[in-house]
């Protein structure tokens, strides 16, 4: 089965991560598929909204680290980098439906979504420092804006996990939804958004994003430089080896 499935209905493109044996860990092919889908949706006038989801049990456990490490330098051709550029600059509304695990990119990608709905059992975490690494996806810029500096430091420096209720309290999550209702609830919100005048919605999103869009791209690039340097460090290699040994 395709690990990224797509379906279009009523102007809504739904992208579903399906790799249950790996808790929807994202490999390079999945990143390529997500990027291609976003690029196509950007230029498809019939698509007005994108929904990004896993299953009703799991969003994503983050990067497939072995696959990620095998991809080489974090340059503009790297599938993860291409996805970050695509999702951070995507001009149409993106809705995330999040259940279970949302680790690493599973949390940071939400900072680029316009609406986020989550189940009460969600576990969010950005374990970058635990692996000897630094934030990515402009999370060093965007998370302090959403959560405040101290909470951002707690989650990015200490890499502490947090719950859906905590995420809702500081503004990362719009609403907490029951597991058996999550995907339908997000789909309903997407259909409601798709029914609105498309130009008005897209111009409104552009206005919301405009004040710092350039800064977001600059931050992504700076984080990638630091991330790439840290990947080569002895500390990072030791932490990654310990992770694989588990």
From TrEMBL:
Classification via Gene3D superfamilies: 2-enoyl-CoA Hydratase, Chain A, domain 1 (3.90.226.10)
InterPro entries: ClpP/crotonase-like_dom_sf (IPR029045), ECH/Chromodomain_protein (IPR051053), Enoyl-CoA_hydra/iso (IPR001753)
Statement: the UniProt record of this protein carries the keyword Isomerase: yes
Location of this chain's protein in the cell: Peroxisome
Source superkingdom: Bacteria
Primary location: other
Keywords linked to the UniProt accession: Isomerase, Peroxisome
Protein name per the record: Enoyl-CoA hydratase
Lineage, top ranks: Bacteria, Pseudomonadati, Pseudomonadota, Gammaproteobacteria, Alteromonadales
Gene behind this protein: echH
